[in-house]
């Protein structure tokens, strides 16, 4: 096969993820190189995502590279995918997933360290937690009722810099991003939220490999990189997410737990959380029921 061009964003995390796919392709004797695309979400790095508007802020520019044949493959964070892909494109590969949860990070010697460990501080100190996600804010308010929230954007280093600069006492990040960059968190403390405490975003920790549907050889190649369990999770979570069609300003979470051929699908919309369990074959019925419950 010819050398494949992989379209990716230029952030440190996006490059780490794209290079993971390069390594996997090399393991099956397929050469590749990266093609960096600056998406709409990358060009505006200050406006909160809930206010920029539009769909696929971190995806459409990369999809255009596929449509124009400037690239052959795109590597996306599954949680960034819009409800609909551009016509003629398909998600053909789902590699093994990373952690799906969110984590809280704060400085070891900061004010939040005492607040987190000592419940008596909860009535005397209102920490500032950095996140612009309505989903994360909704969950964190239950856990830290006194907290205030500041909207932050940018890569992980930028967000950690907000702690060091004193703009935030703690920040909430996806654990998958921290793990994939192999970040050194010396000087920080962390707490991993359980799904019960903070339901993850749809397809968080899952990578989606996109290509042109007409390129059957590339589709078949990306199928070789697919992890079956991750692919089932992706299908279930994405089916429910697309059915909900929640606005980006609304708190929405979707998380699937797979146990052999049994799947439990959890969903949250506007603070209301529901779940259903069934067989993998019942995913369409489960997602339909959860959609009706959340929209009723």
List the helices and strands and how they pair.
Blueprint: E1 4-8, H1 12-27, E2 32-36, H2 40-43, H3 49-52, H4 60-67, E3 73-77, E4 89-93, E5 102-107, H5 111-117, E6 128-130, H6 134-143, E7 148-150, H7 156-164, E8 170-174, H8 175-180, E9 188-192, E10 207-212, H9 216-223, H10 228-244, E11 252-259, E12 262-269, E13 272-279, H11 283-295
Parallel strand pairs: 1-2, 1-3, 6-7, 6-8
Antiparallel strand pairs: 3-10, 4-10, 5-8, 5-9, 11-12, 12-13
Helix pairs in contact: 10-11
Give a verbal description of the structure.
Helices cover 34% and strands 24% of the residues. It is an alpha/beta fold. The strands form 3 sheets. Strands 2-1-3-10-4 form a 5-stranded mixed beta sheet, with helices on both faces. Strands 7-6-8-5-9 form a 5-stranded mixed beta sheet, sandwiched between helices. The longest helix is centred in the C-terminal third of the chain and has 17 residues, at 228-244. The chain is globular and about 65 Å long.
Helical stretch tally: 11
Q: What is the residue-mean pLDDT, rounded to a whole number?
A: 92
Number of strands: 13
**Helix percent band:** 25-40%
């Amino acid at each position: 096969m010819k050398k494949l061009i992989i379209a990716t964003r230029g952030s440190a995390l996006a490059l780490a993820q794209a290079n993971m796919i390069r390594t996997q392709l090399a393991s099956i004797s397929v050469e590749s190189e990266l093609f960096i695309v600056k998406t709409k979400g990358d060009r505006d790095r200050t406006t909160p995502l809930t206010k920029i508007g539009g769909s696929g802020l971190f995806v459409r520019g990369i999809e255009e590279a596929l449509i124009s044949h400037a690239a052959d493959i795109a590597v996306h964070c599954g949680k960034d995918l819009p409800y609909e892909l551009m016509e003629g494109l398909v998600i053909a590969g789902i590699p093994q997933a990373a952690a799906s949860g969110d984590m809280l990070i704060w400085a070891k010697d900061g004010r939040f360290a005492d607040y987190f460990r000592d419940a008596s501080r909860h009535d005397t100190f209102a920490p500032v937690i950095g996140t612009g996600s309505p989903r994360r804010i909704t969950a964190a308010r239950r856990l830290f009722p006194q907290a205030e929230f500041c909207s932050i954007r940018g890569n992980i280093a930028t967000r950690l810099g907000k702690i060091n600069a004193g703009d935030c006492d703690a920040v909430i990040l996806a654990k998958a991003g921290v793990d994939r960059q192999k970040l050194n968190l010396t000087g920080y403390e962390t707490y991993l939220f359980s799904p019960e405490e903070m339901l993850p975003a749809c397809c968080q920790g899952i990578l989606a490999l996109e290509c042109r549907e007409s390129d059957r050889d590339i589709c078949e190649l990306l199928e070789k990189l697919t992890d079956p369990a991750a692919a089932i999770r992706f299908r279930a979570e994405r089916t429910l997410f697309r059915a909900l069609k929640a606005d980006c300003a609304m708190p929405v979470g979707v998380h699937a737990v797979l146990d052999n051929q049994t799947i439990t699908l959890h969903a949250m919309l506007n603070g209301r959380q529901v779940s259903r369990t069934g067989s993998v074959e019942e995913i369409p019925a489960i997602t339909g029921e959860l959609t009706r419950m959340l929209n009723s």
